[in-house]
Design brief:
Number of strands: 11
CATH class of the largest domain: Alpha Beta
Strand content: 15-25%
Number of domains: 2
Largest sheet: 7 strands, mixed
Structural class: alpha/beta
Radius of gyration: 23 Å
Distance between the termini: 57 Å
Shape: globular
Oligomer: single chain
Length: 297
């Protein structure tokens, strides 16, 4: 009997997460036939039927669901073993794979990267920018060492460290706003522009906007904060922007106007998240401390 390989587990876990052979193959950087063959070999080794292959979709057997769960844990444990060896080289030395959401990355990385390079010259930082669900999946699988996201993240296998609070501002192109026009009234009277689904900032915005009528929530989903601000500048509506982005995206000569919310002002909590089983706690604490110092906290 052949032994199960980590390649087979990695391919199967990708298929279980993406529910599509083509997408899983792209994620693993292999051809679809190669991925399919490895999964068939895994089924043969285990003597179990894991995947029900339909014409237009695939489903997983109960055994497939259980093997996917166990594969995720095994892959994370293997990564933790490698991470333990990295800790012997010193704090923040060697490869470190950091994930970060798009509504944070452009606003802290330009300042953070030179600091880390000077403070930890043996650090080789690999960056991954994508949405929160993808980052959480990848840190759970051991594909990322840590992620910077908006908290909370509800998973008992993950640990989080709060880095800073990031207040929200309302953004409008209206220059003649009277003193009686509060953020709540502006949000009632105007089209509220949001990021596309999958961005946590969209969910945070919606949760802050209970006073907005459904017809005022734009059905258009922008891919970036820059796009949202361009739309606001062209009188397509209003939006919310976190302070960390407002300081960079809205310059003095911008036609856009920032409206501050009354206390207690809404905000998002930015944190560093990693697997509870990871042995690199000293690295995570060191990284978190550098970010806090950079944010003057």
């Amino acid at each position: 009997m052949h032994a199960i390989s980590t390649k087979q587990l990695r391919y199967f876990h990708a298929l279980a997460r993406l529910k599509h052979f083509g997408k899983a193959a792209d994620f693993c950087s292999v051809t679809q036939p190669a991925l399919s063959m490895q999964i068939k070999d895994l089924e043969q080794i285990l003597g179990l039927n894991l995947v029900i292959r339909g014409k237009s979709q695939i489903t997983f057997t109960p055994d497939g669901d259980e093997i996917a769960r166990r594969a995720e844990k095994i892959l994370a444990d293997i990564q933790d073993l490698a991470d333990y060896a990295k800790t012997r080289a010193g704090i923040l030395a060697g490869n470190f794979r950091l994930g970060i959401i798009p509504t944070i990355a452009p606003y802290i990385l330009p300042s953070l990267l030179p600091v880390l390079s000077a403070r930890f010259p043996d650090l080789s930082l690999k960056l991954r920018e994508t949405t929160t669900p993808n980052l959480v999946d990848e840190v759970m699988q051991g594909q990322l060492d840590a992620i910077i996201v908006a908290l909370p993240i509800h998973d008992n296998d993950l640990i989080s460290q709060t880095l800073f609070e990031d207040p929200f501002f309302l953004v409008t192109n209206q220059q003649d706003i009277g003193p009686d026009e509060s953020p709540a009234k502006l949000m009632q009277d105007n089209n509220l522009l949001l990021l596309e689904e999958g961005h946590c900032l969209r969910d945070q915005t919606i949760s802050l906007c209970e006073m907005v009528s459904p017809q005022n929530l734009s059905q258009f989903g922008a891919t970036s904060l820059k796009t949202l601000l361009e739309l606001v500048a062209n009188n397509q509506g209003i939006t919310l922007i976190p302070k960390i982005a407002a300081k960079i995206e809205i310059t003095k000569d911008s036609p856009l106007r920032l409206i501050k919310f009354p206390a207690p002002e809404p905000s998002r909590t930015i944190g560093l998240v990693w697997r509870k089983s990871s042995p690199r706690t000293k690295d995570f604490n060191a990284l978190g401390n550098e970010i806090k110092k950079m944010m003057n906290l």
